[in-house]
Amino acid sequence: MRLTLLALTDPPASEETSHALTSDTIVSLGLAIGGIFGLAGTFVASDALRETLWAIDGVALVMATALPTMKYRRLGNDCVVAGFLTFLAGESLLLFGNAAGLQASVPCRRQAIPSWWRPSPAGSGLC
């Protein structure tokens, strides 16, 4: 029995896959961990615990968006890659700002959050 950790493609059908972790499984776990720890950090009163929970949230979300970025780039889906890269850049800025604390990270948050929601200009040919 072989354990596949970072397979970007599905394992061959001849191998036993009951215990294999594919990239889709890792991405799903990263998104779940990111969501749970992000929400938990929002409702915690302690600053130190909030920063720790948000750091775990940020690392999980960065990992969960980096893997599909590579996967869909190899498949040639540039529009999907652009979406994942935008989310990856925004979440990386939030993760970087989290190290400075809540009040000091406001400038990073002002840079990161609009990058997620900024629509592409009409007629730009993007996606």
Order of helices and strands: HHHH
Q: What is the share of helical residues?
A: 55-70%
Residue fraction in strands: under 5%
Spans where pLDDT lies below 50 across 5 or more residues: 1-7, 122-127
How many β-strand stretches? 0
Number of domains: 1
User: What is the residue-averaged pLDDT?
Assistant: 76
Question: How do the strands and helices of this protein lay out in sequence?
Answer:
Layout: H1 23-42, H2 47-75, H3 78-98, H4 106-117
Helix pairs in contact: 1-2, 2-3, 3-4
What can you see in these coordinates?
By secondary structure, the chain is mainly alpha-helical. The chain has one domain. It is built from 4 helices and no strands. Helix 1 packs antiparallel against helix 2, helix 2 packs antiparallel against helix 3 and helix 3 packs antiparallel against helix 4. The longest helix has 29 residues. The N terminus and C terminus are likely disordered.
